[in-house]
Amino acid sequence: MNITGFTFGPAKLAAAPGAAVTWTNADDSPHQVVVTKAPLKTAVRLRGQSGSLTFKDPGVYDYACALHPGMKGTVEVTK
């Protein structure tokens, strides 16, 4: 997943259970991915840094940037 222009790309991603999803920050601003309704978050990442989260169970996981709440995306975990 890319973070550019204060957006996550792609906005929706499909992943298999147990797969790690990695976000790479290409913005000059720091970002932190926080999954809503789940105890998952990356550390704050600066330009050029990456952070990964592992989604173990099937479901739809909405997430946002903790520093810029208007930035949102979804990971859909299916078998």
Main attributes?
mainly beta, Immunoglobulin-like, 79 residues, four-stranded mixed β-sheet
Architecture overview:
With about 80 residues, this protein is mainly beta. The protein has one domain (about 1-75): Sandwich (Immunoglobulin-like). The protein has no helices and eight strands. It has strands at about 1-5, 5-10, 10-15, 20-25, 35, 50-55, 60-65, 70-75. The strands form two sheets. It has a four-stranded mixed β-sheet with strand order 2-1-4-6, with no helix packed on it. A four-stranded mixed β-sheet has the order 3-8-7-5, with no helix packed on it. Strand 7 and strand 8 form a beta hairpin. The relative contact order is 0.33. The mean pLDDT is about 95.
Question: Summed up, what is this model?
Answer:
The protein is built from no helices and eight strands. The chain has 79 residues and is mainly β.
CATH fold type: Immunoglobulin-like
Roughly what is the average pLDDT, rounded to an integer? Answer: 97
Q: By helix and strand content, what is the structural category?
A: mainly beta
Give the CA-CA distance, first to last residue. Answer: 20 Å
Q: Give the biggest beta sheet.
A: 4 strands, mixed
Query: What's the tally of helices?
Result: 0
Q: What is the CATH architecture assignment?
A: Sandwich
Helix content: under 10%
Overall geometric form: globular
The Rg value, from CA coordinates, equals 11 Å
> What is the CATH class name?
Mainly Beta
Tell me the number of structural domains. 1
